[in-house]
Q: What sequence folds into this?
């Protein structure tokens, strides 16, 4: 399955400036693993030490929060869009 | 030979049914449609309780919008009972209404009998002109404009987001605008904070904002809070406002605001900006998720970028602030679909708007509980709060 991962502005310093990247994987976990392999710095920004999502980062699969699906084990469809969204407080 | 005016009136009155004000008074709450056929100014000066207004000159074209069912009992009245007599004949003979009567002596006799008259609050001639483009929209109209004039909206921050929001809400005629900001205008603000100006560098932002608002619309009552919102003053400041616009630039205040507004059940129109990206959502306590349902905790201070440190496209707060202003107007008027339970993500570089769902978290530390159970000591607090604030300085 190939999935488009959208990387927000504040994480792009850790993704070499990439705003989106295409990755393979059958679950959200596998896609994120692929993302961390490509951009190692993103791992600590998105995942806790135990591999779970950090509480201030949300991940959406086709607009739905994966915490309300099957979390990191949520299966992904080919061509799906994964949005990574950390909290922002700028005003 | 054509009849004289007086003769015609006598003829018309003989062809229609009339009803005495004393009977109308008894019928007022009985499902009878009472229609005032006078001119707008006359209606605005006072009318029967519950009366609908259709000027006689628009009777044929508008009556169906007010009374669609032709079998409904209708009572028409005017000032003295003449215009309503003509109107009754029109409705009966030309439009087929089955039960139309004209009130004898009109509102003049009604008043002479000492019966109740309702005086609607009307827009002044200047207000009618100023807000005419609102009044023309059926979803707003005079009634909606009145709601805006009665509304009390609090803006947290007169910065990037607060500037356009305040200007447009003032222009729209929001009657009371509270502004909380402890800062003074700085040259580096002016790339985006359009409510301020070069001449006003160094003066408090609340004063500068007030000046711009009053220059645009002197109708607006500006309430200034030249302070930093914190746990000690938040309840006092926000209580009594209908909607709060969150444009603050730091996480501790966002969490504090969330918890306080959940407790007081005040809706918050929230936006945040960074670089080329903006986020927007409406948090309406107990109807939708709150900010903590969306982000349980803020990022640690070293990962919490601000516009001051990281920069922001000057136009972006304009875009996001006006989306906020739009949501405020919708909430005040109770129209449309506010962005409750939805987070809109605007990417200025890509020119894309993405929507993601925000669910109410059944385990939310704040809004899963009753408002009265949320204690003062836990408001705005999150794990590592002390460390966060120490690091953020």
A:
């Amino acid at each position: 399955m190939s999935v488009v991962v959208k990387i927000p502005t504040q994480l792009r310093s850790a993704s070499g400036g990439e705003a989106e990247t295409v990755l393979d994987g059958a679950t959200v976990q596998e896609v994120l693993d692929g993302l961390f392999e490509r951009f190692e710095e993103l791992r600590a920004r998105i995942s806790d030490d135990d591999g779970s999502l950090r509480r201030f980062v949300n991940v959406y699969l086709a607009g739905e929060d994966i915490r309300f699906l099957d979390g990191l084990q949520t299966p992904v469809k080919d061509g799906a869009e994964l949005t990574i969204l950390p909290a922002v407080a700028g005003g | 030979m054509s009849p004289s005016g007086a003769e015609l009136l006598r003829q018309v009155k003989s062809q229609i049914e009339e009803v005495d004000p004393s009977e109308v008074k008894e019928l007022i709450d009985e499902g009878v449609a009472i229609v005032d056929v006078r001119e707008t100014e006359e209606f605005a000066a006072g009318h029967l309780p519950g009366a609908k207004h259709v000027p006689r000159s628009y009777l044929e074209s508008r009556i169906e919008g007010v009374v669609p069912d032709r079998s409904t009992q209708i009572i028409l009245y005017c000032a003295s009972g003449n215009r309503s007599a003509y109107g009754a004949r029109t409705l009966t003979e030309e439009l087929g209404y089955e039960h139309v009567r004209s009130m004898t002596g009109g509102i003049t006799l009604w008043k002479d009998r000492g019966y109740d008259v309702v005086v609607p609050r009307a827009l002044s001639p200047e207000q009618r002109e100023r807000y005419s483009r609102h009044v023309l929209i059926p979803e707003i109209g005079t009634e909606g404009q009145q709601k805006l004039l009665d509304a009390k909206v609090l803006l947290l921050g007169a910065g990037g987001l607060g500037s356009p929001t305040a200007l447009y809400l003032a222009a729209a005629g929001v009657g009371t605008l509270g502004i909380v900001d402890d800062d003074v205008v700085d040259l580096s603000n002016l790339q985006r904070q359009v409510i301020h100006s070069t001449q006003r560098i160094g003066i408090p932002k609340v004063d500068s904002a007030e000046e711009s608002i009053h220059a645009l619309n002197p109708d607006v009552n500006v309430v200034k809070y030249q302070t930093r919102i914190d746990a000690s003053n938040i309840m006092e400041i926000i209580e009594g406002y209908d909607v709060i616009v969150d444009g603050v630039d730091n996480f501790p205040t966002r969490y504090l605001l969330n918890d306080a507004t959940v407790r007081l059940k005040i809706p918050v129109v929230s936006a945040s900006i960074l670089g080329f990206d903006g986020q927007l959502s409406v948090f309406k306590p107990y109807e939708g998720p709150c900010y903590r349902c969306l982000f349980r905790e803020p990022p640690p201070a070293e990962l919490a970028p601000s516009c001051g440190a990281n920069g922001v496209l000057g136009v972006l707060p304009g875009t996001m602030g006006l989306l906020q202003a739009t949501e405020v107007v919708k909430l005040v008027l109770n129209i449309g679909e506010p962005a409750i339970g939805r987070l809109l993500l605007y990417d200025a570089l890509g020119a894309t708007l993405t929507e993601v769902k925000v669910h109410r978290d059944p385990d939310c530390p704040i809004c899963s509980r009753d408002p009265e159970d949320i204690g003062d000591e836990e408001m705005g607090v999150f794990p590592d709060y002390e460390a966060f604030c120490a690091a953020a300085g």
Q: What stands out?
A: The two ends of chain A are 38 Å apart (CA to CA). Chain A has one domain: 2-86. The longest helix of chain A spans residues 28-38.
